Predict the 3D structure of the following.
Amino acid sequence: MGKTLSEKIIARAAGRESVVPDEIVTVEVDVAMIHDSGGPRRYWDTMREMDVGVWDPSKLVVIADHYVPAKDVAAAEILQLTREFVEFYDIPRFHEAEGIAHTVMIEKGYVRPGMLYVGGDSHSLTGGAVGSFTVGMGSTDMLGVVTTGETWLRVPHTIRVVLDGALPRGVAAKDLILTMIGDHTMAGGLYKSLEFHGSGIAAMGIEERSVLSNMCAEIGAKAGIVPADDVTRAYFAERGIDVEPPYPASDPDASFSETWTYRGQEIEPVVARPHRHDDVVPVSSETGTSIDRAYIGACTGAKYEDLAMAAEVLRGRTVAQGVLLQVAPASRAALQKAMETGVAAVLMEAGAHILPTGCGACPGIGTGILGPGEVCISTTSRNAKGRMGSPDSEVYLASPYGVAAAAVAGRIVDPRDLLQEVAA
Amino acid sequence: MIEGTAWKFGDNVDTDVIIPGQYLILPADEAAEHVMAGIRPGFADEVSEGDVIVGGTNFGTGSSRESAPKAIKAAGIEAVVAESFARIFFRNCINVGLAPVECPRASEIEEGQTVRVDVDNGRVEVVDTGEVYEAVPLPEEIADILEAGGLVPTLKERFSS
Ligand code: SF4
């Protein structure tokens, strides 16, 4: 019986010939990531108490993204402690205010095809966009990883997700993953690994793929993986990193527990309604709902491609009266590219308020959060009550096209209508 | 063996309602006074040491905050029996020493019944009726961590030997 890509990566990391779903194995991780919020401040004391250091500083990446820029003294202290940790253990790969962890891990090539990568954050799954088996964990688990380089894993069953044909204009990976979550609920992929295939996926760039792997967390999955291909190779080649075929892949006769098939042409713009990310409806059912805030941010929705999608809609238009459009780029590299290509100018001219790069309002702890009664449409990944600020605020999740279109109209509209006007 | 009163909750109980964000700043024992504040305010005053939470599917979904299982444990609850768990929550339970018991028929257990939970053998018995529900036994590697009281004591032992 053939093996899935997830099974192969886990077996290699466990030093085993092969593994089967549901068995528990101990793996050695290839790379680990911790950030300012769930990282050193949670367990550095315990490490000192145990008199133990970082298992391998060259395999650990530390990123300060949740509390940058510090909005108060408590945040500044968290950042200080993070820096002290990095200095104390001499960790070479540390990035503060350079971008959101999950975006930076891919941009810098810290996560690569075939790796077993463990991150101290539920959206670490994002790394799966480049063909790595990536899982997210809580802070005590990360204490174990940081001090031993090992952790236990239950080998997941793999669901094969096929996207037949490219997504139409004005429809993004965000619409596909929200559609999947709506169809299968937030628990539909519980403990599973989702492996993405099909011509529609082959046509996507790495950043769009990373929206899929990122939001596999929102369907309960353990991992979301897009096997590496020539697109992955080209992405890394641009960064001076060699990724050569044959790429790590599932065997042709691998056994998948289910197959979910979608036709690219049939995917349409959708929104997830407050306060559940699996309450997903076509944008047409919410057309007319007025909004106060449009937020383009997070690892999910503010990489360069996301900003470019928003600019496509915003070019030559301005934000509606009474609406605040905020853009918090997912990384400095994303903002820099947007400046080079003119995308940033389009956003500015439309009236966007550009926030510093970082998690910002997404987890409700940075800047730009929502007050009571405010209604926001957002490119982020979660809309649980109070996620982006006041428990009395409301968040609709949508693609960058959908958020930009709502910013212009002052209410939820079908972004394809605006894109058509541009074309006409 | 754990024996106590069953407290029932539904599907997709989010860590945000188990311990709302505003209490995250509190130490675990104080946070415990607010456990389940987002779904059943006053819960902490009703439970007794050794009681059991019974949930539906995807228990502990959402943010990976460890304060959720910590607060449940500090409130005196010794086991969470649910049809299924959100995976990070499941791991966090083990790591803080709270038993997560995966029991496919958990929804048949009624509020207020006395339940006896055998974590090692994967059995949940309703004492009032004698009904026994199968649960998924914990694999040895994981049961060992739970038995040691969580991952920190396990690591301490590893590094001291
Ligand atoms: S941007 Fe949001 S989803 Fe991404 S890492 Fe930060 S808090 Fe998490």
